[in-house]
Amino acid sequence: MWLTNARVFDATGAAARDGRAILIEDGLIAAEDQAGAVPDGVDVIDLAGRTVLPGLIDAHAHVFATPPTPDDGAEPLWPGLTAHFVATGLREALRMGFTTLRDVGSYGDEVITARQAMRYGAFPGPRLLTCGRIVSATAPGGRFFDGMYREADGPDEVRKAVREQVRRGADFVKVMSTGARSVELEDPHPAQLTGPEIAALVDEAHRLGYRVAAHAEGLAGTELAIRLGADTIEHGMYLNQRPDLLDEMAAAGQVLVPTLSCYYGVASGQWTAPLVRLARHNLAEASRTLLAARAAGVPIALGHDWQPFSDAAVELIRLVEHGMTTHEALLAATATGARALGLDDRLGTIQSGKVADLTVVDGDPLTDPVLLRDRAQIWLVLQRGAPVAGAVFDNSAAIAANARTAADSRSVTHTSALSNAGRPRSGTTETPG
Ligand SMILES: [Zn+2]
Questions:
Q1: Is the separation of the CB atoms in 83 and 328 below 8 Å?
Q2: What domains lie within the chain, and their CATH numbers?
Q3: pLDDT per position as a tens digit, 63-100
Q4: How many A from CA of 265 to the centre of ligand 1?
Q5: Alpha-carbon torsion, ordered 304, 336, 323, 275, to 10 deg
Q6: How do 232-235 and 211-216 pair as beta strands?
Q7: Gap from CA of 134 to ligand 1 centroid (Å)
Q8: What pLDDT digit, counting tens, does each position of 385-431 carry?
Q9: What's the gap in Å between 51 CA and the centre of ligand 1?
Q10: How far is the CA of 363 from the centre of ligand 1 (A)?
Q11: What is the pLDDT of residue 182?
């Protein structure tokens, strides 16, 4: 496939370039160069100056759906209902240009089931990495989020909890190094697990080849997570008070996932008054930490951490509102997201050899990031080189108009590729283990 007449943001740190073409072969990016003569035997899509980004990555998603509440007297809900809403959310995330999600905690085994369903072509959705259950100490959160945690105490049981997630099919391990500010009974300030427990968790995960994401709020647990080698620090909002720890993260290449949207969510939602007050305070702390981490050279990845999980672009806009340049925020949603997931050898940039997960935006998100929340502007999403979603699919008139553009430029027809793409293809959401 030949994508031509494109504005390309390649996420290598270079400025966006106009008049480019991308050659895709076998689901990979074969070349990215100035648009020239159409190679023989390719399907062509003329992007008419639209912007191509690497497929967007949400490094902190909670992939679950809240079931509807039936009216009194309505038929009770069937047990399998929620899974359909999870599928709808995944389909919508892909539609919004997010080609990869890292699920950092959801209920039961619905995410693992959805991942399998996508592998067999039941519906199109993003590449999905999951932690299985979150490993936590015995703590109030386990009661608040029934089915999301694996509570474990003592280094040996923590080690077993890691092995259980691997057995379940997890792609990485998530640990609660502190309590959560969404649980009134939890105080995030003391570390929730001890040093020996976190050390055992990191050792077991790394020994088996899995990365570790650490929920980290209070500085005691955050310090343990950083010093004991967690690969990503989730939230970490008080780190502005510990520049020494930010320097250690930068030196070790540990990625910070700031999750601003979560503070907005709790500050404005139906939460208890103390949690609302705390969320407002935490937003100010997280904002200071974002700037301090950026200044210290800590890699920063986008993590939405709110619902609906398909609306992750709102986090990108907030990263900009809180001081990142749009270019930096787009890197957080692409190259650094891939780095957070340990997939930067395959994802996150538009470079030869990378997987052709691409998001085509009508307009320029570098000057107007708000476009990324607008369904109508997400023109085309490609997954492993196959067009799978986007506004161009939403009405046949748009497809016909694009076909005419291609015909006008005497290019090989691409309509077969577009019309085939509505059908899910097995294998397109394979998740590297
Ligand atoms: Zn979260």
A1: no
A2: 2-54+349-421 (2.30.40.10)
A3: 999 989 999 999 999 989 999 999 999 999 999 999 99
A4: 12
A5: 30
A6: parallel
A7: 10
A8: 999 999 998 865 555 555 555 444 433 333 333 433 333 333 333 33
A9: 30
A10: 31
A11: 87
